[in-house]
Each structure stands twice: as structure tokens, then as C-alpha cells.
Amino acid sequence: MKTRRNKLLGVNKEVIVGDFKINNDGVLFKDTRDDIEQLIPICSPLLVKATTRNKEGNDWGKLLIFVDPEGQQKMYHMASSKNQNAIISDLVHRGLAVSSHSRSRHLLAQYLRSAPSQNMMLSSSIPGWVKNSFVLPYNSFGPDEVVFSGDPNIGFGTHGNWKTNVGKFCRGNSRLVFAASVAFAAPLMRVVGIEGGGFHFRGLSSKGKTTALQVAASVCGKVATAPGEDSYLLNWKSTANSFEDVAQSHNDAVMVIDELGQADPKSVGDICYMLANGQGKARMGTAKRSWRVLFITSGEISLAEHMSKAGVETMIGQEVRLLEIGTDCTEHGLFENIHSSKSPAEFSNRMKAATANHYGLPFKKFLAHLTSNTGTVEANCRAHMESFVQAVMPQNAHGVVPRAALRFALVAAAGEIATERKLTGWRKGEALRAAKKCFASWMEHRKTFDPVAMTVDKVQKFILENNTRFELVGGKVRLNGSKVGYQKKGKFLILPDVFRDSVCAGINPESVADALERAGYLETSGPNRKKKQERIDGQLAYFYSVPDSILKAR
Ligand SMILES: Nc1ncnc2c1ncn2[C@@H]1O[C@H](COP(=O)(O)OP(=O)(O)OP(=O)(O)O)[C@@H](O)[C@H]1O
Ligand SMILES: [Mg+2]
To answer: Residue of the nearest CA to atom 18 in ligand 1?
Structure first.
């Protein structure tokens, strides 16, 4: 045991630090009181590996290294500002053996205060990027070794084999592949300069939503199976009072927050803003907290429906921060492929069990790759994002669409990069396809809150439903019903009174025309002249002129 301890701590011979000796037996104090020299045992072997401070030159501390009674080497970050008794209790809790000598605790405190180290290391109290490195509790990736100096019990952990037990079974399931890809996407936000934001999985009860969130969480850490266990999966209720803390402890990572229905309907919209914008509230005497996160949530109802319980309407800004994705995909609910399970319920239960036992490794491997090849990953990520955007961006994309598309694109790219690194068990293109499906679902949802999208949808439906009431100029098709306008050279010319009474039906025609124009689906005669003159049968008349490309609008 002694040799093992020595080897683990890197101590080949005795180390002397002032009146302290550190050798195979532990830390000893050379007491010379009353001219009699005696060695007082203090604790098991413990050394200071480095002196630490954060990148702003604050939060000074020491990185300690010691051996527990089973011979395991442990690290502990000691903040210089922390109470010595609390530090010793922490060390004992983690397995440092303190001797029974009456002066041992007092001497240990003295040793911890005075023991020097030649090494300087950077520290960070929150996970995420520090210069060109990425830090997690107990792990540092990249060129500079960074010490995590915050509370390490924030859910990151590693166990089992995620790829073969979880990743592989996501195949063919767009929502599962997408959810897992969100976890890979979070550290890429800084790399490609994308803002934070969320996704909301919305659908019927007991159809796999929480299962999908567990899959996302398991990329980074354990999903608790019993109360009291640390869990990477959060819920709105227990997080309500500490969103700023929790957001910081997921900096540059994904926050997975289940059950939107449990959030306070009055404040949930503001919380979505806050999480996405990455800034806490200013408070007297403390620095404003900041973070960069992606978040996923789930629920049976939409953000707007939930907020309406408190009589609050969503703003477009909130909707674009929490992009809703429907989960009622097939007769199997959220799942599109249940692999060899007998039922979707059995598949869900298998996935839940797998996420409790296999987690964390893909995220760490992803970070190791990302921090040692940041430039290459950035270029690759941008290329994947560009091809995603080109594939999905509708003609005349406007307003919130390009902004939302970028977040989906980042997720698609992250999933592809993780797949290229052989971390997921998916085929090439799987993450891209999954993100396209999820984006299409969001585009449908957008029609419920975006006035421009609502207008385009309304006019598109009017034209489709009244197709036979447009007289074909120069054609012989007979009208079926009263005339609503003309169809001429790739455009629908809607009669002004029909536009006012039937298309707009109570809504101000100017604002409808304005929205149509902004979407690129209205040909006008110039600024503030929404109607266009057209010659029909030799007569000039004014119409609302809508290009027939509106029929393909999404
Ligand atoms: N697609 C499905 N079809 C049928 N049963 C399912 C399906 N998905 C999950 N279940 C069953 O429902 C249980 C709960 O699954 P999960 O937590 O994923 O549901 P959920 O969609 O989050 O439901 P809720 O909205 O009530 O939270 C599972 O343990 C499983 O037995
Ligand atoms: Mg659920």
C-alpha cells in the first residue's frame, strides 16, 4: 500500500515543508517544544499540487492531492477564502485519514495554509470554456490544465458505454437523435458565435418526451433513478428558485429541464429570455452572473398555452428563444423506430433504463476532440450548418426564421461531428435529417404566433380553397362560384373588396397586405401602394397581386 501511495502522489522520497514532513506514512509535524524532538502524525499523504487563481486573477486557492484509505488518488480544490474547518470536513468526507492526535486538526490547518507550490494553474468555478480549454468537475480538456473550483456535484459523470446502449437505439428516431445532438451542440456555441436558446418538446402524455430528455441528459451525465441522487435531468419546479445558479453550473453545456407544466406560468416566459440571453439580474454587492446555455424542455402544452393560465401572452421574442417541436410523430408517439421492442412503452422503458447506466462518455470525448482541433471543428461545423440552412431555408425567409434555423443548424452540425468522431453509433447524415424534421415541425408551430407566417398561411389557404373562383386570364376554365379575382402569368390578382371582406375578414387589410409584402408575397406599385394596376380584357383595374409561389410557402 505504501509504495502505491508514493507512486500515486509522485513522492519518491521524503518532502520537507518547514516543520512538516511528508512521506509514505503521511504528513508529520516535527515538534521541538521543550527541546525534545517528536514527530506528530497529522493525516494520510497530502500535497499541494498547484496554486490556483481564475482568469481574472481572483478566487485564489490550492489544488490538493491526497490518497484515501483504499489507495485512490483524489484531488480537492481548496479555496483560500473558505473556512479551514469546512475544508478539513470536506477532505475527511472524501477520505483523508486524520490522526487521532489532539493537535492534528490544528496542525493540518497550519500545513494547508503554509504549504507552498511552485506550480500555478488556472481555475474556474463554473464549467465551460476557459481561454482555449474546457473545464468540467474533475476534468480539464485542452492546452491549459484548468482546475474546477466550484461545487463538483452538478451532474456531470461518466459510466458504461453510451454509444452501444443508448446512441445506437436513437437511430431512426428524429427526436431522440436531435435531443442528443443538442448536448453536443452546446460547447460549439462559443466556437461559431451562436446565441443561447431552447427547444420545447411538446406532445401527448406518456408518449416518450421525458425519455427523449433523458437521452439528451445522458450524453453529459447520469439521470437519477432514485430521489436524492444527483441528476443531470432537472425539473422546472425544483429549479425555480435557483435558475441563475443552475444556468451557471451548465455553462457551455445543455440544461435539460423536464415538465414545462410545472413552471410558474407568470415567470416562465421571462426565465426563457434570461436563460437564452445568458445574464442574471443585477444585485447589490454581487457581480451579475452570466452563462451560455442551450436548453431543452418538454410538456403537454405549448409555452403560450401555459403562460395564458396566468393571463400572460407570449411575445415573439420568447417564442424564438424556446423553439417548439411537436412530438406526436407516429402511431408510436414520439418514436419512429422502436427497434426490436414489442411496444413503444417497452422501448421507452428500455431507453430510460439505459440512460441511467450509460452516460457521460460521449460528451467528454467530444470535448477532448474539440479542444485539440478547435479550428478544424469550427470549419467543419460551419460547413454542416451552411448545408443545413441551404436545404431548409424557405424562399423569402424573414423575421424569426433565419435566427431559428441557425440554432437547428448548429444542432445538426454537432450531431454530424459527433458521428464522424464515432461517438454516436449513427449513420452519416442522420443528425442532419433529424434536425430537418424538427425544423419542419417548428415551421408549422410558427404559424401559431408569427403574424407574417399566419398571414401567408391564411392567404395560401384562401387561394387553395377558392382556386376555381379565380378567372384564368386567356384561358377557358369556367368559374365555380362568384369571382374572387384573376389568375394571370404566375400570379393571383385578388379583387380589393374580396381581399377586405373574405381574406382579411375583420383584420385591417393594410396590415395583412403589409405582412404579405414583408414575406415577399405581394407585388405592389411602390411604397405605401399595396394594390397593383393590371390590365384585364383591355381595362385597367387595381388588385392585390400575389405571386403563385405562395402556394409553396411553408
Ligand atoms: N410512445 C409511447 N407509446 C406508449 N407508451 C409510452 C410511449 N412512450 C412512453 N410510454 C410509456 O409512458 C411512460 C412515460 O414515458 P415518458 O416519461 O417518456 O412520457 P412523457 O411523454 O414524458 O409523458 P408526460 O407528458 O406524462 O410526462 C414510459 O415509462 C412508458 O411506459
Ligand atoms: Mg414527461
So the answer is: 208
Ligand 1 atom nearest residue 298's Cα: 22
> φ and ψ at 480, to 5 degrees?
-115, 95
Q: Is the beta carbon of 208 within 6 A of some atom in ligand 1?
A: yes
Smallest CA separation from ligand 1 atom 7, residue? 207
Measured in angstroms, how far is the CA atom of residue 245 from the centroid of ligand 2? 24
Q: Please, are residues 199 and 412 in contact by the beta-carbon 8 Å criterion?
A: no
Judged by DSSP in three states, 520 sits in coil
Task: Ligand 1 pocket test: pick from 206, 233, 237, 297 the residue with the most ligand atoms within 8 Å of its Cβ.
Answer: 206
Where in the chain are the domains?
A: 2-121, 162-446, 451-552
What string of pLDDT tens digits covers the 554 residues of the chain?
A: 344 444 546 656 788 889 999 987 899 999 987 778 889 999 999 999 999 999 999 999 999 999 888 888 889 999 999 999 999 999 999 999 999 999 999 999 999 999 888 899 999 999 999 999 999 998 999 999 999 999 888 899 999 999 999 999 999 999 999 999 999 999 999 999 999 999 999 999 999 999 999 999 999 999 988 887 888 999 998 776 789 999 999 999 999 999 999 999 999 999 999 999 999 887 777 778 999 999 999 999 999 999 999 998 888 888 899 999 999 999 999 999 999 999 999 999 999 999 999 999 999 999 999 999 999 999 999 999 999 999 998 777 777 899 999 999 999 999 999 999 999 999 999 999 999 999 999 999 998 888 888 899 999 999 999 999 999 887 766 677 789 999 988 999 999 999 999 999 888 888 899 989 988 899 998 888 899 999 888 889 999 999 999 998 87
The matching CATH number, chosen from 3.30.420, 3.40.50, 2.60.40, 3.40.1350, for 162-446 is 3.40.50
Q: Which ligand is nearest to the CA of 204?
A: 1
Q: How far is the CA of 210 from the centre of ligand 2 (A)?
A: 4
Q: CA of 507: how far to CAs of 52, 350, 455, 516, in Å?
A: 64, 51, 10, 13
Q: Is the CB of 333 under 6 A from ligand 1?
A: yes
Contact between residue 542 and residue 532 where contact means Cβ atoms under 8 Å apart: yes
Phi-psi category of 537—alpha, beta or left, where left has phi over 0 and alpha has psi -120 to 50? Answer: left
- Which of the listed residues 201, 256, 342, 348 should we mutate to test ligand 1's pocket, taking the one with most ligand atoms within 8 A of CB? 348
Provide the β-strand partners of residue 364: none
| Angle, CA of 167, 173 and 174, to the nearest 5° | 105
CA distance 175 to 335: 8
pTM for the whole structure: 0.87
Q: Which residues of 487-526 are buried (b: 16+ CB within 10 A; e: fewer)?
A: bbeebbbbbeebbbeebbeeeebeebbbbbbbbbbbbbee
217: left (phi over 0), alpha (psi -120 to 50) or beta: alpha
Give, using CA atoms, the residue closest to atom 6 of ligand 1. 345
Residue nearest to atom 10 of ligand 1 (CA): 345
Q: How many A from CA of 69 to the centre of ligand 1?
A: 44
Ligand 1 pocket member 330 (CB < 6 A): no
